[in-house]
Amino acid sequence: MASLYLNSLLPLLSSHPQKLIEPSSCSSSSLLSTSNRNEVAPLKPIVINGDPPTFVSAPARRIIAVGDLHGDLSKARDALQLGGVLSSDGRDQWIGQDTVLVQVGDILDRGDDEIAILSLLRSLDVQAKANGGAVFQVNGNHETMNVEGDFRYVDARAFDECTDFLDYLEDYAQDWDKAFTNWIFESRQWKEDRRSSQTYWDQWNVVKRQKGVIARSVLFRPGGRLACELARHGVVLRINNWVFCHGGLLPHHVAYGVERINREVSTWMRSATNYEDSPQMPFIATRGYDSVVWSRLYSRETSELADYQIEQVSKILRDTLDAVGAKAMVVGHTPQLSGVNCEYGCGIWRVDVGMSSGVLDSRPEVLEIIGDKARVIRSNRDTLHELQIADYI
Predict the structure, then answer these.
(1) Cα 342 to Cα 91: distance, rounded to the nearest angstrom
(2) Which of 3, 1, 10 is nearest to 374 (CA)?
(3) pLDDT at residue 349 is higher than 80
(4) Mean pLDDT, to the nearest integer, of 218-223?
(5) Which residues have a Cβ under 8 Å from the Cβ of 294 and sit 6 or more positions away?
(6) Which pTM value belongs to this model?
(7) Residue 104 in contact with residue 68, Cβ under 8 Å?
(8) Chain-centre distance of CA 74, in angstroms?
(9) Is the Cβ–Cβ distance between 81 and 95 less than 8 Å?
(10) Which of 169, 227, 304, 389 is deepest in the core (most CB within 10 A)?
(11) Backbone dihedral angles phi then psi of residue 369, each to the nearest 5 degrees
(12) Other CB atoms closer than 10 Å to residue 109's CB: what's the count?
C-alpha cells in the first residue's frame, strides 16, 4: 500500500509566483484534447511546443515524476502503480485519467527489459492522450551513450532482447508504431521462449554474443529505429512551472537555448551522418554529462559545502530557474540513498532512488506534483510515515 506523509511546509526560492512564459517562436505546436468530464468547466487542453516537446502547458494536471529505471521492468511497473497511473492486473492499462507522467531518463543499461520499458511508456502515452493526460520522457546520459555506440553498461541479456526485437519486427513489416507499441505485450513470451531454449554453453557462444551486439548497434546507432524513437524526446522539458531534466540544467544551457539543444540532440539521433562533429554542438547536446552538476557535486551524500558555497549554488539555481521560467527543477541521474528529496529551498528535487535491480534494487518512490505543491509517494506496507511536501505559492 502506498503511504503519503506530511513533514513540513517549505518555502520556495522566490516568494513571488511567476507567470508561465511561452517562447515567442517554437518549432511545432500541438494539442492534446481532454476527456469528457462531468464538470461544468472542463479542463483546458494540454499544449505542447517544440519538436521534440520542450515547453508544455498542462493546466490543472496532476504530474507524476519517475526516476531512473535502468532496464528493470518489474520496478518500473511498481513505480507507475505507486503513482496511480498503471493498472495492477497485469494488463498494463493506463488508469491515471488526465495525469501527466514524466520519466527523467536512463531507461537504458544495467537491466534486460529496456525496449519493453520504452514500449510500455509509448503504449501508456497513447492511452493517456485518450483520457486528457500525457506521458513524457527526457533522455539521460545512458540514452545518448547507446546512440554513440557506448555499450559498456549493457546487461548481457539486454543484447538478447535486441536480437529478439529485430526478429519480432519482421512480423510487422513496415508498421513500426504498431510493432513498437505492442512489444510490451509480447516481449514476455519472447523472453520465456529464449530461456527455455538456452543451454549452459550459450554463455560461451561468441557468435551469439556478436549477433546481439550487432542487433543493438543496428537499433541504436544514429538513424536506427530505436535511436529515432529516442529522438522523439528531448533532454530538457518544462511543464507549467517545473523543469525536468536528467542531471540538471545550468545558466549556459539556457543561454544556448533549451529548445535548440533538444532539436540538435534529436537531429543527431535521427541522422545517419556524423552530426555530433558539428562545432555548433554543445557538450550536453551529444553526451549530456556536463549537466550532472546539481545531483553529483552538490549532493549531501557526496560533499559538505561551506555556507558561502551553498549561497553560490543557490544563486546559480535561482538564475537557472529564472532564465527557463520555472520555479523548481526535477532531476535523476544520481541515486539518493535517503530516497526522493529536495534541496535549496526545494528549488531542486532529486528523484533517482536506484530502484533498478542493476543499481541499488531499492524500493520505488515517485514525486507527485499538483500545482505548486510536491510530495513524495513511498510504499511502506500500511505503515504511515511523514510525507515531504512543499508549497510554492
Answers:
(1) 34
(2) 10
(3) yes
(4) 96
(5) 247, 248, 249, 317, 329, 331, 348
(6) 0.83
(7) yes
(8) 16
(9) no
(10) 227
(11) -120, 125
(12) 25
Q: Which three cell numbers stand for residue 9?
A: 511546509
* pLDDT (0 to 100) of residue 160: 94
- Residues 6 or more apart in contact with residue 205 via CB below 8 angstroms: none
Is the predicted pLDDT of residue 1 greater than 50, yes or no?
no
Closest CA to 316 of 285, 336, 343: 343
Of the pLDDT bands very low, low, confident and very high (cuts 50, 70, 90), residue 42 is confident
Lookup: cell for 201: 554453453
Is residue 110 within 8 A of residue 155, CB to CB? The reply is yes
pLDDT on residue 312: 83
Closest Cα to residue 67, out of 260, 318, 247, 218?
A: 247
Helix (H, G, I), strand (E, B) or coil at 245: strand
Which amino acid is residue 101, in one-letter code? Answer: L
Shortest CA distance to 285 belongs to which of 148, 154, 153, 150? Answer: 148
- Whether residue 93 contacts residue 127, with contact meaning beta carbons closer than 8 Å, is answered with yes
Segment 275-295 shows an average pLDDT of: 47
Which position has the higher pLDDT, 113 or 34? 113
Give the pLDDT confidence of 333-342 residue by residue, as tens digits: 989 999 999 9
pLDDT beyond 70 at 9: no
Cα separation, 159 vs 165, whole angstroms: 10
Is 142 annotated in the active site?
Answer: yes
Q: Which of 142, 246, 253, 333 is catalytic?
A: 142
Report the percentage of the chain scoring pLDDT > 90: 64
Separation CA 154–CA 220 (nearest Å): 12
Distances (CA, A) of 323 to 18, 316, 343: 12, 10, 19
d(CA 372, CA 242) in angstroms, rounded, equals 9
C-alpha cell at 310: 551553498
